[in-house]
What we know:
By secondary structure, this protein is mainly beta. It has helices spanning 88-108, 136-146, 222-225, 240-248, 250-253, and strands at 4-10, 13-18, 37-44, 57-60, 66-79, 125-126, 156-165, 180-183, 191-195, 198-202, 206-210, 226-228, 236-238, 258-263, 266-279, 284-296, 302-313, 318-324, 332-333, 339-348, 352-363, 368-379, 394-397.
Amino acid sequence: MGLLVQVFMWNQRWRLLPRCELLLRRNIKKQAAYPTKLAEVGRLVEAREERYETGQLFLHRIFGYRGVILFPWTARVYDRDLHNPSKVGSATTVNNTSQQRTKDNSLHVKASSPAAPTTAQGGEETTAASYHTDSSREAETSVGTAQVDPKEVKGKVQTFYQVLIDTRDCPHIRAQTEAVTFLGNQDSNRSLYAIPGLDYVAHEDIMPYSSSEKSPLQHELFDKFLTHAPEADPPFVGQDTLKAWQEKNHPWLDMSDVHKETTENVRITVIPFYMGCRETPASSVYWWRYCIRLENLGELSVQLRERHWRIFSLSGTLETVRGRGVVGQEPILSPRLPAFQYSSHVSLQAPSGHMWGTFRLEREDGYSFDCKIPPFSLESKPEDVPPAPTAPTAHHDLDSDPKKRDDSD
Protein backbone atom coordinates (compact mmCIF):
# COMPACT_ATOMS: atom_id res chain seq x y z
CA MET A 1 0.00 0.00 0.00
CA GLY A 2 1.44 3.32 -1.04
CA LEU A 3 2.18 6.14 1.35
CA LEU A 4 -0.22 9.05 1.35
CA VAL A 5 1.75 12.11 0.27
CA GLN A 6 0.68 15.52 1.46
CA VAL A 7 1.91 19.06 0.99
CA PHE A 8 2.68 20.79 4.29
CA MET A 9 3.07 24.57 4.16
CA TRP A 10 3.99 26.73 7.15
CA ASN A 11 5.41 30.24 7.22
CA GLN A 12 5.96 30.14 3.42
CA ARG A 13 8.04 26.95 3.61
CA TRP A 14 7.05 23.83 1.69
CA ARG A 15 7.66 20.23 2.64
CA LEU A 16 6.46 17.03 1.02
CA LEU A 17 6.05 14.47 3.79
CA PRO A 18 4.36 11.05 4.13
CA ARG A 19 1.49 11.11 6.63
CA CYS A 20 3.03 8.34 8.73
CA GLU A 21 6.08 10.54 9.41
CA LEU A 22 4.57 14.02 9.46
CA LEU A 23 6.89 16.05 11.70
CA LEU A 24 6.17 19.52 13.05
CA ARG A 25 8.97 21.77 14.22
CA ARG A 26 9.15 22.14 17.99
CA ASN A 27 9.65 25.89 17.73
CA ILE A 28 6.37 26.65 15.98
CA LYS A 29 4.98 29.51 18.06
CA LYS A 30 2.73 31.30 15.60
CA GLN A 31 0.19 28.66 14.64
CA ALA A 32 -2.64 31.17 15.13
CA ALA A 33 -1.04 33.61 12.69
CA TYR A 34 0.21 30.88 10.32
CA PRO A 35 -2.24 27.98 10.50
CA THR A 36 -1.13 24.63 9.11
CA LYS A 37 -2.56 23.83 5.69
CA LEU A 38 -2.70 20.32 4.29
CA ALA A 39 -3.51 19.32 0.74
CA GLU A 40 -3.59 15.73 -0.45
CA VAL A 41 -1.44 15.00 -3.47
CA GLY A 42 -1.70 11.24 -3.96
CA ARG A 43 -0.04 7.96 -3.06
CA LEU A 44 3.58 7.05 -3.68
CA VAL A 45 4.02 3.98 -5.86
CA GLU A 46 7.06 1.77 -6.19
CA ALA A 47 9.89 3.16 -8.29
CA ARG A 48 10.92 1.08 -11.27
CA GLU A 49 14.08 0.50 -13.23
CA GLU A 50 12.37 0.29 -16.61
CA ARG A 51 11.16 3.36 -18.47
CA TYR A 52 8.10 5.23 -17.22
CA GLU A 53 5.18 5.81 -19.56
CA THR A 54 3.57 9.01 -20.78
CA GLY A 55 1.14 10.30 -18.17
CA GLN A 56 3.04 9.11 -15.09
CA LEU A 57 2.71 11.54 -12.18
CA PHE A 58 5.85 12.08 -10.11
CA LEU A 59 7.63 14.16 -7.49
CA HIS A 60 11.09 15.45 -8.39
CA ARG A 61 13.61 13.79 -6.07
CA ILE A 62 15.77 16.92 -5.76
CA PHE A 63 13.46 19.89 -6.27
CA GLY A 64 10.28 18.37 -4.86
CA TYR A 65 7.86 19.72 -7.45
CA ARG A 66 4.87 17.83 -8.83
CA GLY A 67 5.05 16.90 -12.50
CA VAL A 68 3.82 14.57 -15.22
CA ILE A 69 5.86 12.77 -17.87
CA LEU A 70 5.14 13.78 -21.46
CA PHE A 71 7.62 11.54 -23.27
CA PRO A 72 11.09 10.02 -22.79
CA TRP A 73 14.38 11.02 -24.39
CA THR A 74 17.45 8.85 -24.73
CA ALA A 75 20.68 10.69 -23.97
CA ARG A 76 24.33 9.68 -23.78
CA VAL A 77 25.75 10.68 -20.39
CA TYR A 78 29.46 11.44 -20.09
CA ASP A 79 30.44 11.18 -16.42
CA ARG A 80 34.08 12.22 -16.07
CA ASP A 81 34.28 10.96 -12.49
CA LEU A 82 33.97 7.38 -13.69
CA HIS A 83 36.94 7.74 -16.04
CA ASN A 84 39.36 9.70 -13.86
CA PRO A 85 41.61 7.38 -11.77
CA SER A 86 42.33 10.19 -9.28
CA LYS A 87 38.63 10.46 -8.49
CA VAL A 88 37.77 6.79 -8.08
CA GLY A 89 37.82 6.95 -4.27
CA SER A 90 36.02 10.28 -4.01
CA ALA A 91 33.48 9.26 -6.64
CA THR A 92 32.64 6.19 -4.59
CA THR A 93 32.15 8.34 -1.49
CA VAL A 94 30.05 10.83 -3.43
CA ASN A 95 27.89 8.10 -4.92
CA ASN A 96 27.34 6.53 -1.50
CA THR A 97 26.36 9.92 -0.09
CA SER A 98 24.04 10.55 -3.01
CA GLN A 99 22.44 7.10 -2.68
CA GLN A 100 21.92 7.62 1.06
CA ARG A 101 20.37 11.01 0.39
CA THR A 102 18.13 9.44 -2.25
CA LYS A 103 17.03 6.85 0.27
CA ASP A 104 16.33 9.51 2.88
CA ASN A 105 14.41 11.60 0.37
CA SER A 106 12.26 8.63 -0.60
CA LEU A 107 11.24 8.30 3.05
CA HIS A 108 10.79 11.97 3.87
CA VAL A 109 10.00 13.20 0.33
CA LYS A 110 12.02 16.32 1.02
CA ALA A 111 11.30 19.36 -1.16
CA SER A 112 13.09 22.63 -1.75
CA SER A 113 12.06 25.79 0.05
CA PRO A 114 11.75 29.39 -1.09
CA ALA A 115 13.30 30.54 2.20
CA ALA A 116 16.82 29.89 0.88
CA PRO A 117 18.31 31.71 -2.15
CA THR A 118 15.40 32.48 -4.43
CA THR A 119 14.42 30.68 -7.60
CA ALA A 120 16.01 31.90 -10.81
CA GLN A 121 12.94 33.53 -12.26
CA GLY A 122 12.49 34.08 -15.94
CA GLY A 123 15.63 35.48 -17.53
CA GLU A 124 18.25 33.19 -18.92
CA GLU A 125 21.39 35.11 -19.67
CA THR A 126 22.96 35.47 -23.07
CA THR A 127 26.39 36.12 -24.51
CA ALA A 128 26.85 38.02 -27.76
CA ALA A 129 28.45 36.51 -30.85
CA SER A 130 31.42 38.88 -30.98
CA TYR A 131 34.77 37.35 -30.04
CA HIS A 132 38.32 38.39 -29.29
CA THR A 133 40.91 38.06 -32.01
CA ASP A 134 42.93 35.59 -29.96
CA SER A 135 45.45 33.61 -31.90
CA SER A 136 44.56 30.15 -33.14
CA ARG A 137 47.64 28.81 -31.41
CA GLU A 138 46.44 30.06 -28.03
CA ALA A 139 43.01 28.62 -28.63
CA GLU A 140 44.40 25.25 -29.63
CA THR A 141 46.70 25.17 -26.59
CA SER A 142 43.89 26.05 -24.22
CA VAL A 143 41.57 23.50 -25.72
CA GLY A 144 44.22 20.82 -25.51
CA THR A 145 44.99 21.62 -21.90
CA ALA A 146 41.34 21.52 -20.91
CA GLN A 147 40.80 18.24 -22.79
CA VAL A 148 37.41 19.41 -23.93
CA ASP A 149 36.66 16.54 -26.29
CA PRO A 150 33.83 14.72 -24.50
CA LYS A 151 34.38 11.61 -26.63
CA GLU A 152 37.49 10.83 -24.56
CA VAL A 153 35.03 9.82 -21.86
CA LYS A 154 32.90 6.86 -22.78
CA GLY A 155 29.24 7.78 -22.67
CA LYS A 156 26.46 5.67 -21.21
CA VAL A 157 22.94 5.72 -22.63
CA GLN A 158 20.37 6.80 -20.04
CA THR A 159 16.71 7.80 -20.05
CA PHE A 160 15.56 11.36 -19.48
CA TYR A 161 12.02 12.72 -19.62
CA GLN A 162 10.33 15.81 -20.95
CA VAL A 163 7.89 16.81 -18.22
CA LEU A 164 5.27 19.38 -17.30
CA ILE A 165 5.67 21.17 -13.94
CA ASP A 166 2.69 21.99 -11.75
CA THR A 167 2.40 25.78 -11.91
CA ARG A 168 1.52 25.90 -8.20
CA ASP A 169 5.02 24.66 -7.38
CA CYS A 170 6.97 26.90 -9.77
CA PRO A 171 7.49 29.77 -7.28
CA HIS A 172 8.92 27.39 -4.68
CA ILE A 173 11.61 25.49 -6.58
CA ARG A 174 15.25 26.40 -7.21
CA ALA A 175 15.14 25.62 -10.91
CA GLN A 176 14.10 27.82 -13.79
CA THR A 177 10.71 26.99 -15.26
CA GLU A 178 11.36 28.57 -18.65
CA ALA A 179 14.32 26.39 -19.54
CA VAL A 180 13.01 25.44 -23.01
CA THR A 181 13.72 28.30 -25.43
CA PHE A 182 13.78 28.76 -29.19
CA LEU A 183 14.39 31.46 -31.79
CA GLY A 184 11.57 33.14 -33.67
CA ASN A 185 11.63 32.25 -37.36
CA GLN A 186 10.45 35.58 -38.74
CA ASP A 187 12.76 37.56 -40.98
CA SER A 188 14.95 40.04 -39.08
CA ASN A 189 13.37 38.88 -35.83
CA ARG A 190 15.73 39.19 -32.85
CA SER A 191 13.32 37.59 -30.42
CA LEU A 192 13.84 34.67 -28.10
CA TYR A 193 10.81 32.65 -27.00
CA ALA A 194 10.42 30.40 -23.97
CA ILE A 195 7.91 27.63 -23.30
CA PRO A 196 7.10 27.86 -19.58
CA GLY A 197 6.67 24.95 -17.20
CA LEU A 198 8.83 22.36 -18.99
CA ASP A 199 11.83 20.51 -17.60
CA TYR A 200 14.17 17.59 -18.38
CA VAL A 201 14.36 14.98 -15.63
CA ALA A 202 16.69 12.00 -15.31
CA HIS A 203 15.15 8.60 -14.61
CA GLU A 204 16.70 8.37 -11.14
CA ASP A 205 15.09 11.69 -10.12
CA ILE A 206 11.55 10.40 -10.73
CA MET A 207 9.51 9.51 -7.62
CA PRO A 208 6.24 8.16 -9.08
CA TYR A 209 2.87 8.58 -7.40
CA SER A 210 -0.77 7.99 -8.27
CA SER A 211 -3.81 10.23 -7.90
CA SER A 212 -7.55 9.70 -8.20
CA GLU A 213 -8.08 13.24 -9.53
CA LYS A 214 -8.97 13.72 -13.19
CA SER A 215 -6.77 16.83 -13.37
CA PRO A 216 -4.18 16.42 -10.60
CA LEU A 217 -1.76 18.90 -12.16
CA GLN A 218 -2.26 22.57 -12.86
CA HIS A 219 -0.75 23.53 -16.20
CA GLU A 220 -2.60 24.93 -19.18
CA LEU A 221 -1.17 22.21 -21.43
CA PHE A 222 -2.17 19.30 -19.18
CA ASP A 223 -5.70 18.84 -20.54
CA LYS A 224 -4.54 19.58 -24.09
CA PHE A 225 -1.87 16.87 -24.02
CA LEU A 226 -3.34 14.21 -21.70
CA THR A 227 -6.71 12.66 -21.10
CA HIS A 228 -7.95 10.77 -18.06
CA ALA A 229 -8.25 7.01 -18.66
CA PRO A 230 -9.09 5.21 -15.36
CA GLU A 231 -8.51 1.77 -16.86
CA ALA A 232 -4.97 2.60 -18.02
CA ASP A 233 -1.73 2.47 -16.03
CA PRO A 234 -0.83 5.27 -15.56
CA PRO A 235 -4.42 6.57 -15.80
CA PHE A 236 -3.47 9.43 -18.13
CA VAL A 237 -2.77 8.83 -21.81
CA GLY A 238 -1.34 11.13 -24.44
CA GLN A 239 -3.64 12.72 -26.97
CA ASP A 240 -2.85 13.17 -30.64
CA THR A 241 -2.10 16.82 -29.89
CA LEU A 242 0.85 15.76 -27.69
CA LYS A 243 2.42 13.68 -30.46
CA ALA A 244 1.86 16.44 -33.01
CA TRP A 245 3.35 19.03 -30.65
CA GLN A 246 6.37 16.84 -29.98
CA GLU A 247 7.04 16.30 -33.68
CA LYS A 248 6.51 19.96 -34.54
CA ASN A 249 8.82 21.28 -31.80
CA HIS A 250 11.44 18.54 -31.96
CA PRO A 251 14.32 20.91 -32.87
CA TRP A 252 13.91 22.87 -29.61
CA LEU A 253 13.19 19.87 -27.41
CA ASP A 254 15.85 17.44 -28.64
CA MET A 255 18.52 16.76 -26.03
CA SER A 256 22.23 16.66 -26.76
CA ASP A 257 24.74 14.75 -24.66
CA VAL A 258 24.73 15.13 -20.88
CA HIS A 259 28.01 15.90 -19.08
CA LYS A 260 28.85 15.44 -15.38
CA GLU A 261 31.86 16.10 -13.17
CA THR A 262 32.36 16.32 -9.39
CA THR A 263 34.84 18.51 -7.50
CA GLU A 264 35.05 18.62 -3.68
CA ASN A 265 31.66 16.88 -3.38
CA VAL A 266 29.93 19.35 -5.70
CA ARG A 267 28.57 17.79 -8.86
CA ILE A 268 27.99 19.84 -12.02
CA THR A 269 25.66 18.54 -14.73
CA VAL A 270 25.40 20.25 -18.13
CA ILE A 271 22.92 19.62 -20.96
CA PRO A 272 23.45 21.67 -24.17
CA PHE A 273 20.74 22.22 -26.81
CA TYR A 274 21.13 23.57 -30.33
CA MET A 275 18.61 26.35 -31.03
CA GLY A 276 19.27 27.26 -34.66
CA CYS A 277 21.06 29.78 -36.84
CA ARG A 278 20.42 33.50 -37.45
CA GLU A 279 21.30 34.40 -41.03
CA THR A 280 22.32 37.98 -41.80
CA PRO A 281 23.86 39.45 -44.96
CA ALA A 282 27.17 39.81 -43.14
CA SER A 283 27.37 36.55 -41.15
CA SER A 284 25.67 33.51 -39.68
CA VAL A 285 25.21 33.31 -35.91
CA TYR A 286 24.60 29.90 -34.31
CA TRP A 287 22.75 29.73 -30.98
CA TRP A 288 22.72 27.17 -28.18
CA ARG A 289 21.11 27.05 -24.78
CA TYR A 290 22.51 24.98 -21.94
CA CYS A 291 21.03 23.82 -18.67
CA ILE A 292 23.32 23.56 -15.63
CA ARG A 293 22.65 21.93 -12.27
CA LEU A 294 24.90 22.38 -9.26
CA GLU A 295 24.39 19.76 -6.56
CA ASN A 296 26.10 19.63 -3.17
CA LEU A 297 26.75 16.00 -2.18
CA GLY A 298 28.71 16.89 0.96
CA GLU A 299 27.76 17.72 4.54
CA LEU A 300 28.94 21.35 4.57
CA SER A 301 27.10 24.18 2.82
CA VAL A 302 28.80 25.95 -0.09
CA GLN A 303 27.98 29.20 -1.88
CA LEU A 304 28.63 29.98 -5.52
CA ARG A 305 30.65 33.20 -5.78
CA GLU A 306 32.06 33.48 -9.30
CA ARG A 307 31.99 31.88 -12.72
CA HIS A 308 34.84 31.55 -15.21
CA TRP A 309 34.02 30.41 -18.74
CA ARG A 310 36.15 29.71 -21.79
CA ILE A 311 34.37 29.47 -25.13
CA PHE A 312 36.19 28.13 -28.17
CA SER A 313 34.78 28.57 -31.66
CA LEU A 314 35.63 26.48 -34.71
CA SER A 315 36.58 29.76 -36.37
CA GLY A 316 39.68 29.72 -34.14
CA THR A 317 38.66 32.30 -31.57
CA LEU A 318 38.70 31.88 -27.80
CA GLU A 319 36.71 33.99 -25.36
CA THR A 320 37.24 34.15 -21.60
CA VAL A 321 34.37 35.39 -19.44
CA ARG A 322 34.38 36.04 -15.68
CA GLY A 323 31.59 37.30 -13.47
CA ARG A 324 29.85 37.19 -10.11
CA GLY A 325 27.38 34.36 -9.49
CA VAL A 326 25.01 33.04 -12.16
CA VAL A 327 21.81 34.62 -13.53
CA GLY A 328 22.22 37.41 -10.99
CA GLN A 329 22.39 35.10 -7.97
CA GLU A 330 24.96 33.55 -5.64
CA PRO A 331 23.01 30.49 -4.48
CA ILE A 332 23.82 28.56 -1.31
CA LEU A 333 23.86 24.77 -1.62
CA SER A 334 23.18 23.19 1.76
CA PRO A 335 22.44 19.59 2.81
CA ARG A 336 18.80 20.68 3.21
CA LEU A 337 18.64 22.51 -0.15
CA PRO A 338 21.47 20.84 -2.08
CA ALA A 339 20.72 21.83 -5.68
CA PHE A 340 20.30 24.83 -7.95
CA GLN A 341 19.50 24.67 -11.68
CA TYR A 342 19.49 27.38 -14.32
CA SER A 343 19.66 27.89 -18.09
CA SER A 344 21.64 30.29 -20.25
CA HIS A 345 22.52 30.93 -23.88
CA VAL A 346 25.63 31.24 -26.02
CA SER A 347 26.21 32.09 -29.66
CA LEU A 348 29.07 31.47 -32.08
CA GLN A 349 29.90 32.71 -35.54
CA ALA A 350 30.82 29.14 -36.46
CA PRO A 351 28.74 25.94 -36.64
CA SER A 352 30.51 24.31 -33.71
CA GLY A 353 32.74 24.91 -30.72
CA HIS A 354 33.42 23.96 -27.10
CA MET A 355 32.77 25.40 -23.65
CA TRP A 356 34.37 24.64 -20.30
CA GLY A 357 35.23 26.48 -17.12
CA THR A 358 34.94 26.63 -13.33
CA PHE A 359 32.66 27.90 -10.59
CA ARG A 360 34.35 29.51 -7.61
CA LEU A 361 32.68 28.13 -4.48
CA GLU A 362 33.08 29.11 -0.83
CA ARG A 363 32.41 26.53 1.86
CA GLU A 364 30.85 27.46 5.21
CA ASP A 365 34.17 26.81 6.98
CA GLY A 366 35.81 29.51 4.83
CA TYR A 367 37.53 27.16 2.35
CA SER A 368 37.27 28.31 -1.30
CA PHE A 369 37.85 26.13 -4.35
CA ASP A 370 37.27 25.99 -8.09
CA CYS A 371 34.62 23.48 -9.13
CA LYS A 372 35.15 22.20 -12.67
CA ILE A 373 32.43 22.61 -15.27
CA PRO A 374 32.74 19.55 -17.52
CA PRO A 375 33.74 20.49 -21.09
CA PHE A 376 30.99 20.05 -23.63
CA SER A 377 30.60 20.40 -27.38
CA LEU A 378 28.44 22.92 -29.17
CA GLU A 379 27.34 21.16 -32.35
CA SER A 380 24.93 22.60 -34.89
CA LYS A 381 22.40 20.55 -36.84
CA PRO A 382 20.99 20.78 -40.37
CA GLU A 383 18.50 23.62 -40.56
CA ASP A 384 14.93 22.41 -40.86
CA VAL A 385 13.09 24.85 -38.65
CA PRO A 386 9.30 24.45 -38.49
CA PRO A 387 6.90 27.26 -37.54
CA ALA A 388 7.02 28.52 -33.98
CA PRO A 389 5.24 26.40 -31.34
CA THR A 390 1.54 26.89 -30.70
CA ALA A 391 2.06 26.34 -26.96
CA PRO A 392 1.95 29.36 -24.64
CA THR A 393 5.26 31.17 -24.80
CA ALA A 394 7.10 34.01 -23.12
CA HIS A 395 8.89 36.55 -25.31
CA HIS A 396 12.30 38.18 -24.80
CA ASP A 397 14.32 40.42 -27.08
CA LEU A 398 17.92 39.29 -27.53
CA ASP A 399 19.21 42.84 -27.75
CA SER A 400 17.21 44.70 -25.13
CA ASP A 401 16.51 42.19 -22.37
CA PRO A 402 18.80 43.18 -19.45
CA LYS A 403 18.66 39.64 -18.08
CA LYS A 404 20.25 38.27 -21.21
CA ARG A 405 23.81 39.10 -20.16
CA ASP A 406 25.30 35.71 -20.31
CA ASP A 407 26.47 33.39 -17.83
CA SER A 408 28.68 32.18 -20.45
CA ASP A 409 27.86 35.04 -20.16
